Amino acid sequence: MKKYFFILVLLCPFLKAGCQSNNFLDTLTTDGAIKYYQSLLKRNNHSAFGNYGMASACFVKNNYEDAITYSRRNVRDSNEYQAECLIILASSLDRTNRPSDALRVFENAIKSYPTNYQLLYQYALCSYKNRKFWQAINLVKKVINLKPLFVPAHYLYGCCMFENNNDRNCAAAFLFGLLLDNDSLRAQQAIIFNKQYLLYKIENIEIPYFEKRKKILTIDHVLYFYFPEIFRTEILKSLDDENTYNDISNYLTSNQKSFPAEYNIFYKNLSDSGLNVLFSHYCSRMSLDATNKIWLKAHSKDLEQFAKFLDKYLPGK
Fold first, then answer.
1. DSSP the chain
2. Residue 9: its pLDDT value, please?
3. Which of 56, 83, 196, 280 could form a disulfide with 245 if both were Cys (CB 3.0 to 4.6 A apart)?
4. What is the C-alpha separation between 253 and 255, in angstroms, rounded?
5. What is the dihedral of CA 250, 253, 258, 264, to 10 degrees?
6. Average pLDDT in the 264-282 region?
């Protein structure tokens, strides 16, 4: 079953699966959800589900002060929504320019929930925003060990390595994220990063500072700030040079012994299997490069072999 799943992903990267839910709450707008949770809290002001629901809905509406209020009600008492409310509380504090308070909440929260990967990831993102790079790196490593296929963690790992000390291994983290990522806009940003970085054109990468950094809500925002829109389109259209894919392949070969532990076994097996070039083309599948799309179509049989490789060697399978 796993084999057929990866063949589907490899050959149809733009296919998006959907599912129907009979859950009443899924049919509500955010405002409708707020009214629903308010009705629950009128009956029982201490309802853990009601307070969690209100905190979530307020957070989605960017009403962070109310999100803080409702999440704090659940944080005080042990309940099944406590971890989620800690994430909402800390993230809301960060988004209202209280980073020290946010980091303190995260720090205390992981003592109770050390294996909650979403909590660890949001803590890592908050640490990154506040330029605590080594703290973010240590946290994101834990996320990757818990959830190896969680795409944002690999991009965040790469951003931390790059911004901290221009660690060449950042490209390995980005490439691993691209292997897994089927979000076209985010993947295009990551493709541009790798092209510029591997060509030693890091002066084209605009690290967000000051007000831009405060506006970061997700890893997608980080990647967006790295490149202006006009420049981004120009780079994507220039990926039709075969040297781009050879650069990736050569990078994987020449840096194999220095990759972080999270990646070294995978990349070693990739190189030993002679799949570096195929991997390079596949990781660029979301680009605007028509030549690469033709190349991938022409190598569909090879992609099937690549799918088998991933079933065998991809971490977390």
1. -HHHHHHHHHH-TT---------GGGGS-HHHHHHHHHHHHHH-TT-HHHHHHHHHHHHHTT-HHHHHHHHHHHHTS--TTHHHHHHHHHHHHHHTT-HHHHHHHHHHHHHH-TT-HHHHHHHHHHHHHTT-HHHHHHHHHHHHHH-TT-HHHHHHHHHHHHHHH--TTHHHHHHHHHHH---HHHHHHHHHHHHHHHTT-GGG-----HHHHHT--SHHHHHHHHS-HHHHHHHHHTTT-HHHHHHHHHHHHHTGGGS-HHHHHHHHHHHHTT-HHHHHHHHTTTSS-HHHHHHHHHTHHHHHHHHHHHHHHSTT-
2. 39
3. 280
4. 6
5. 120
6. 94
- Residue 255 confidence (pLDDT) above 60: yes
How many CB atoms neighbour CB 19 within 10 A? 4
What's the whole-number mean pLDDT along residues 142-171? 97
Task: Report the mean per-residue pLDDT for the chain.
Answer: 88
- Which residue from 86, 65, 67 is spatially nearest to 75, judged by alpha carbons? 86
Contact predicate 64/92, CB 8 Å? yes
Q: With contact defined as beta carbons under 8 Å apart, do 85 and 117 qualify? A: no
Please, which pLDDT band fits residue 211 given cuts at 50, 70 and 90? Answer: very high
Per the CB < 8 A criterion, the answer to whether 303 and 278 are in contact is yes
CB 167 within 8 A of CB 156: no
| DSSP assignments along 202-213, one per residue | GGG-----HHHH
pLDDT at 22 over 80: no
**Domains recognised in the chain with CATH numbers:** 29-93 (1.25.40.10), 141-317 (no CATH)
pLDDT digits (tens, 9 = 90+) for 50-62: 999 999 999 999 9
Q: Is residue 95 within 8 Å of 64, Cβ to Cβ?
A: yes
